[in-house]
Each structure stands twice: as C-alpha cells, then as structure tokens.
C-alpha cells in the first residue's frame, strides 16, 4: 500500500515559511474503528523538498508521532517564492505518493508590522495637527471672535 499524499499548507513568516502537515488517512480498521497511520506504525518519517530559484533542496529527514504537525524552514531569502512537497514514509513501508507542490513568498523582516506602524503614525500625526489647530484657534489666530461694532449689530 502507498502512503500519501499528505495534506500540506504553508504560510510565510519573516525570512521563513511555516509548513503544516496532516498525515494521509489510512483505510485500515481495527474493531470497526478507522486506524491512523500513527496507530499502525507508531512513528513516521517525513521528507520536505524545498524548491526555489536555486533549484530543489531536500531537507534532512524528520520523525513524527503526530497526525498534524508544523515545522518552520528558516534562513530564507525575503520576498522570494518557495515551493514545498512532502513525502511520508514508514520503516516498514517505503512506497509513497508525494504531496502536490505548494508555494508561498517568504516575508521580509521590514514588511512585518509595517501596516500597523503606518496606521499608528497616521493617528499620531492627526492628533498633533488637531492639537495645534485647537491651540491656534484658542489663541485667536483662526476664526477670531471679533465683536462687531454696535452700528452693525
């Protein structure tokens, strides 16, 4: 029986990507209950292949004992597109189907939080302008309260 393909989702983080992997479902039942691959094998190996402009790089093999797990691939170039494919194997089963390629662009450090900083900065500038206008108005430079001569009243 072939293992796979696993379900893979990736999200970007600063100079890295976060890979979430869900093991493939098995079709084996024990006493009417569907068995997970962890129930059957105890532990599984997973290999992540990372593809970018530089070509394909196979990451070191890892072990998992969980149905759903995440791993972070760090030290990536910011604003560059990366794709990953994952295979799951067991010590007793070397037959596998790799996951389809999933792609994402790694975030840059500078872009993280930029939106929040811009919003906070705009609010601060607006408050400063409002305070200055209030002071100038109170001092009588804008819309001064001129009392009209009695003849015009």
From TrEMBL:
The superkingdom listed in its UniProt entry is: Eukaryota
Q: Where are the transmembrane segments?
A: 117-143
Q: A Pfam family name for this chain?
A: Interfer-bind
Cellular component GO terms, alphabetical:
plasma membrane
Gene3D superfamilies in the record: Immunoglobulins
A GO molecular function annotation here is: interleukin-22 receptor activity
Q: Does the keyword Transferase apply?
A: no
All copies of domain Interferon/interleukin receptor, residue ranges? 3-105
Q: Which keywords label this protein?
A: Membrane, Transmembrane, Transmembrane helix
Q: Which InterPro entries match?
A: FN3_sf, Ig-like_fold, Interferon/interleukin_rcp_dom, Type-II_Cytokine-TF_Rcpt
Answer yes or no on keyword Transmembrane helix. Answer: yes
Name of this chain's protein: INAR2 protein
What organism is this sequence from?
Answer: Helopsaltes ochotensis (Middendorff's grasshopper-warbler)
Q: Which gene encodes it?
A: Ifnar2
């Amino acid at each position: 029986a072939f293992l796979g393909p696993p379900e893979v989702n990736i999200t970007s983080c600063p100079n890295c990507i976060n890979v979430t992997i869900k093991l493939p479902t098995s079709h084996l039942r024990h006493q009417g209950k569907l068995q997970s691959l962890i129930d059957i094998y105890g532990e599984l190996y997973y290999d992540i292949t990372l593809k970018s402009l530089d070509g394909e790089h196979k990451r070191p093999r890892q072990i998992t004992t969980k149905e759903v797990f995440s791993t972070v691939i760090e030290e990536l170039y910011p604003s560059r597109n990366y794709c990953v494919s994952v295979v799951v194997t067991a010590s007793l089963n070397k037959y596998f189907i790799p996951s389809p390629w999933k792609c994402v662009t790694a975030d840059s450090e500078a872009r993280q939080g930029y939106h929040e900083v811009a919003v906070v900065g705009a609010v601060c500038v607006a408050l400063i302008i409002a305070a200055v206008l209030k002071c100038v108005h109170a001092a009588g430079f804008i819309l001064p309260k001129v009392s009209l001569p009695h003849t015009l009243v």
